[in-house]
Design a protein that fits this description.
alpha/beta; Rossmann fold; six-stranded parallel β-sheet; four-stranded parallel β-sheet; 43% helix; 15% strand; disordered C terminus
Length: 305
């Protein structure tokens, strides 16, 4: 089995490893991954759009954050995760649920599954904004990327709008430690200070794109602090695109009657940032996730670049 070759025991965690029967049960599922808890927002959107379809959710916390990786390293990392998911689960589709690799390297990786990314909904933001001042929030790697900035320049020229890509790494890092759940007051204070900086550049800002899946969980906080603000989250868009892709391929998967049986949660650990699987499991429980979290380790084994 590919499991023996690609999955090794985590040295940090005592959490349970997925059994061969579990791996077999989740064959031909939908795989969703990013560098941590952010992709859970996409998992929830897919569950809403395709109720109880079998999903493998990989939180690649050992690689957190994707947005600070050099492009070549990020490409190799994403390819190795695609290879591992493909050879372990033979998924029907894989969603790279992170804006940074979707924008910067997804065109340079390959998969035998349907491969979908998550992208900043900038054109939707333009149509939504009354002031025509828009902010695209994301990682350092995404906001500094050539493809994104070329897109922004083109859209600014065509639509006579002002768009600013703003690095939100400090917010993203606090999300991965579940600060928004554990200390919501501190989270709101950090968010208010962050937006004060943006308002100095865009005093009439009325629309933001939450272009890191981690930021999706901040939407209620932003709307509480700034009721006039429209927050666009691409999670629903990618779930709808997935549904269309599966319908086009006439894919039919046996659905389960139990949400717990339809989701396999896997997590790697980051010893440097002290991102342990047990803490991740606790955070997901607070978000209402009833599925067990299994601890895994994935080597960077891609050799196809």
């Amino acid at each position: 089995m590919f499991f023996t070759r690609y999955v090794s025991l985590s040295s940090m965690s005592t959490l349970q490893q997925p059994s061969q029967s579990i791996l077999h049960y989740f064959q031909n599922s939908i795989a969703i991954f990013d560098s941590g808890m952010g992709s859970y927002s996409v998992v929830k959107a897919v569950q809403k759009t395709l109720p109880n379809i079998k999903i493998v959710y990989l939180a690649d916390r050992a690689s957190f954050p994707y947005g600070k990786m050099p492009l070549k390293e990020l490409q190799q990392n994403i390819q190795s995760r695609l290879d591992w998911l493909t050879q372990t689960f033979s998924p029907i589709a894989i969603i790279v649920a992170s804006n940074t690799p979707s924008v910067t390297v997804l065109d340079y990786v390959h998969s035998t599954s349907v491969l979908l990314g998550v992208y900043p909904p900038i054109e939707a933001a333009i149509h939504s904004s009354s002031s025509k001042e828009i902010s695209v929030l994301g990682t350092k790697g995404m906001v500094e990327s050539t493809p994104l900035n070329l897109q922004i320049q083109t859209l600014e020229r065509i639509h006579s709008v002002k768009i600013r890509a703003i690095e939100a790494s400090s917010l993203i890092e606090s999300m991965e430690t579940f600060q928004f759940l554990n200390d919501p007051i501190a989270c709101k204070l950090k968010l208010k200070q962050f937006f004060e900086g943006i308002f100095r550049q865009l005093p009439c800002l009325d629309t933001v794109t939450l272009s890191s899946t981690h930021l999706s969980f901040l939407k209620p906080f932003i709307q509480e602090l700034y009721p006039h603000m429209t927050c666009l989250d691409p999670a629903d868009d990618v779930a709808y695109t997935l549904k269309q892709s599966l319908e086009k391929k006439r894919f039919v998967q046996r659905q389960t009657n139990n949400c717990e049986d339809s989701l396999l949660v896997l997590s790697t650990e980051n010893s440097l940032l002290k991102l342990a699987v047990k803490d991740f499991e606790t955070g997901l429980e607070k978000l209402g996730c009833v599925s067990k979290v299994y601890s895994i380790s994935i080597p960077n084994l891609s050799s196809k670049l």
